[in-house]
């Protein structure tokens, strides 16, 4: 669908789409897909082997190329609200604090599911290990609008705009940008 949409917009030449399990790529296969810029949005949070996946994302970039990773922030105010609400509400998922962030694990129909609010410091450490220098972090949103009823979403969107414009602390959605050495 992405290929069709980019072709319809006349963008099919400068953009290439790949679909694969990031944690399953071998270093040899990654070298055949080197790119100037690599964008990874909301993917690592669902991969149990996120470190290997991020290593492969970093290996995808040419030297001098840029890597942008969008993830949820384990140190955000929203994460603290989620932790508090889980004490009050009954939930089926298991909450586990790891060095990679706060993980919520569950299983449905025999399939394991993970959602992680990431440690941005852990993401940056893996980037550095792969010769990627983290350049900056940028607040994308303060609160996830999908957690709120439709009537409250305009208010949440306004808060998110404020956080984005001011790059304020405690944001839930954060991007980490780095440059490959």
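-> sequence recovered:
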């Amino acid at each position: 669908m992405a290929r069709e949409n980019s072709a319809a917009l006349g963008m099919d030449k400068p953009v290439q789409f790949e679909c694969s399990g990031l944690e399953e790529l071998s270093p040899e296969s990654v070298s055949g897909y080197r790119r100037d810029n690599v964008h990874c949005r909301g993917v690592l949070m669902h991969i149990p082997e996120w470190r290997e996946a991020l290593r492969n994302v970093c290996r995808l970039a040419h030297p001098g190329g840029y890597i942008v990773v969008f993830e949820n922030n384990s140190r955000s105010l929203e994460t603290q609200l989620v932790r508090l609400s889980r004490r009050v509400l009954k939930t089926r998922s298991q909450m586990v604090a790891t060095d990679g962030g706060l993980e919520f694990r569950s299983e449905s129909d025999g399939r394991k599911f993970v959602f992680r609010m990431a440690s941005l410091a852990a993401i940056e450490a893996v980037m550095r290990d792969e010769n990627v220098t983290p350049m900056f972090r940028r607040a994308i949103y303060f609160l996830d609008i999908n957690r709120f009823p439709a009537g409250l979403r305009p208010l949440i969107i306004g808060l998110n705009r404020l956080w984005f414009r001011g790059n304020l602390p405690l944001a839930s959605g954060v991007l980490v940008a780095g440059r490959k050495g």
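The helical segments are 2-8, 27-31, 50-59, 77-88, 120-129, 153-166.
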